Amino acid sequence: MIKIIVACDEKNVIGKNNQLIWHLPADLKHFKNLTTGHSIIMGRKTFDSIGKALPNRNNLVVSRQNQILADGIILCHSLEEAILKAKSLSRDDIFIIGGAEIYKQALEIADQVILTRLHDYFDGDAFFPEMPSQEWEIIQTERGITDEKNPYQYSFLTYQRIR
């Protein structure tokens, strides 16, 4: 199954200046729990913002460049190539982890979207694309716990493509 995993605000903002805007440890833990042991596909800018391959995952980076040199990544030149490569490495789920351009391409082919919705508004320059409501249904909702470490109201939502 191809799954998109993303965190965004009420206006679908996902970042600014190639960085996350908020710090939400509960979301990072959620991301780690879901993606560990699987293949993750990201664009070069997302990889640059992370700065290294994420442990215990197959890290596939989509880039037009040929000169990305980093331990633990598999360079691909298109989303399609990355998906084929991920499928050749494992029959497990494939997670698309960003950024905006990769999300836009992946939304056409994804089976699920796992979305952390921050119930707030942030100033950003990168956005998650609109999900056509006739193509997606929410199959799971969980309200996040707000505390001193997780100061924002948020929910974990799982969308399934309507077939």
Automatic annotation (TrEMBL):
<dbReference type="GO" id="GO:0005829">
    <property type="term" value="C:cytosol"/>
</dbReference>
<keyword id="KW-0554">One-carbon metabolism</keyword>
<dbReference type="GO" id="GO:0070401">
    <property type="term" value="F:NADP+ binding"/>
</dbReference>
<comment type="function">
    <text>Key enzyme in folate metabolism. Catalyzes an essential reaction for de novo glycine and purine synthesis, and for DNA precursor synthesis.</text>
</comment>
<dbReference type="GO" id="GO:0004146">
    <property type="term" value="F:dihydrofolate reductase activity"/>
</dbReference>
<dbReference type="InterPro" id="IPR001796">
    <property type="entry name" value="DHFR_dom"/>
</dbReference>
<dbReference type="GO" id="GO:0046654">
    <property type="term" value="P:tetrahydrofolate biosynthetic process"/>
</dbReference>
<keyword id="KW-0560">Oxidoreductase</keyword>
<keyword id="KW-0521">NADP</keyword>
<dbReference type="InterPro" id="IPR012259">
    <property type="entry name" value="DHFR"/>
</dbReference>
<dbReference type="GO" id="GO:0046452">
    <property type="term" value="P:dihydrofolate metabolic process"/>
</dbReference>
<comment type="similarity">
    <text>Belongs to the dihydrofolate reductase family.</text>
</comment>
<dbReference type="InterPro" id="IPR024072">
    <property type="entry name" value="DHFR-like_dom_sf"/>
</dbReference>
<protein>
    <recommendedName>
        <fullName>Dihydrofolate reductase</fullName>
        <ecNumber>1.5.1.3</ecNumber>
    </recommendedName>
</protein>
<comment type="pathway">
    <text>Cofactor biosynthesis; tetrahydrofolate biosynthesis; 5,6,7,8-tetrahydrofolate from 7,8-dihydrofolate: step 1/1.</text>
</comment>
<dbReference type="Pfam" id="PF00186">
    <property type="entry name" value="DHFR_1"/>
</dbReference>
<dbReference type="GO" id="GO:0046655">
    <property type="term" value="P:folic acid metabolic process"/>
</dbReference>
<dbReference type="GO" id="GO:0006730">
    <property type="term" value="P:one-carbon metabolic process"/>
</dbReference>
